[in-house]
Design goal:
5-stranded mixed sheet, alpha/beta, D-Maltodextrin-Binding Protein, domain 2, ABC transporter substrate-binding protein, 2 domains, about 325 residues
Length: about 325
């Protein structure tokens, strides 16, 4: 009788252990980011502060360097989720995809680039770009379209008022400017601030401050992935929302310290400067909901740049259900 009772107890303990392990099973998500930048601070905070772990997720992050490469990774099942500009989902839609790319959580809500001049300018005016050589971003990408949009807002025709260079690969733009190409360049952080500290260039304006709210970088997935993994998408969004709130509430110093392991070659002082710039201009979304007016502003910018294949209804490529659920 005692032996039988012992076996029952052991069986119960094994069942309990198996059930507990099953409930606590960690799911791996393959995430492809378009570039690696302090601009994406809330993502790195979610990783550093354990917000993904709290949701039972393990995020494997890969930097794919460019919107086209990021979207290729997503379409070819090399990634489950992509962090990239929302314009890429519109391009895929225009090609008639049977498995549309759906924007489900927003990370940044302004452009993240800055205008950097080669020479120090004490009193900058956009008119000074006329007749200059401008090293822009990749044609058809969100940074370049925003850049052209802002130039036009200031009465500058990027095709006739300056020499526009946009055939340099995304990852090589900083080195091209450093080696002498261009009077002005459009750069992400922390490169812009590093160049300024080194004397390679000088930040004179912010494209994010000039262009207004847009879904500049969002998390997106194939519709099929979301259909099969709705709970996973919700958990991922919940972790991002926790990080967004954390970034909104914490000091510049605390944020920089949290994401520092992601940027081992960047001085903490530079990181703090960059975080402060982005916080001041409201680049970090405080929640993951992509609003319809932002979606429309995005398409206006694409249209102005001549890159919009056709307007796409908000409901067609945007799903805010996970974001709304985790924020309520």
């Amino acid at each position: 009788m005692k032996r039988r009772l012992a076996w029952v107890c052991i069986a119960f303990l094994l069942l309990f252990t198996f059930t507990a392990c099953s409930q606590n099973k960690t799911e791996t998500i393959r995430l492809a980011e378009v570039t690696h930048s302090i601009f994406y601070a809330p993502l790195y905070v979610a990783m550093a502060e354990g917000f993904f772990e709290e949701e039972g997720l393990n995020v494997e992050l890969t930097t794919t360097w460019g919107g086209d490469k990021t979207m290729t990774a997503l379409l070819s099942d090399g990634a489950d989720i992509a962090l990239v500009g929302s314009e890429t989902s519109i391009y895929v839609h225009a090609q008639g995809s049977n498995d549309p790319i759906i924007n489900f959580a927003q990370l940044t809500q302004t452009d993240g680039t800055f205008l950097v001049s080669r020479e120090k300018i004490d009193s900058f005016d956009w008119e000074q770009l006329k007749g200059s050589t401008f090293l822009g971003q990749r044609k058809g990408g969100m940074p370049q379209m925003v850049g052209e949009f802002v130039l036009k807002q200031h009465g500058i025709d990027p095709r006739s008022d300056l020499e526009l260079i946009q055939n340099v690969d995304f990852a090589n733009i900083p080195s091209a400017f450093a080696s002498g190409t261009g009077d002005y360049v459009q750069l992400f952080e922390p490169t812009a601030s590093i160049f300024e500290k080194e004397g390679t260039g000088h930040i004179v304006a912010s494209f994010g401050a000039e262009s207004g709210s847009v879904p500049y970088t969002t998390f997106m997935s194939k519709q099929s992935f979301l259909d099969d993994n709705a709970e996973t998408a919700k958990k991922f969004t919940a972790a991002i929302y926790k990080a967004q709130q954390w970034v909104d509430e914490k000091s510049v110093e605390e944020i920089a310290a949290s994401i520092a392991p992601q940027f081992e070659d960047t001085e903490l002082e530079i990181m703090e400067t960059v975080v402060e710039r982005y916080k001041e201009q409201g680049s970090f979304s405080t929640d993951p909901i992509l609003e319809e007016d932002e979606w429309n502003n995005l398409q206006d910018i694409m249209d102005e740049a001549g890159e919009l294949p056709g307007r796409v209804d908000y409901e067609t490529l945007v799903n805010t259900s996970y974001a709304e659920e985790v924020t309520n």
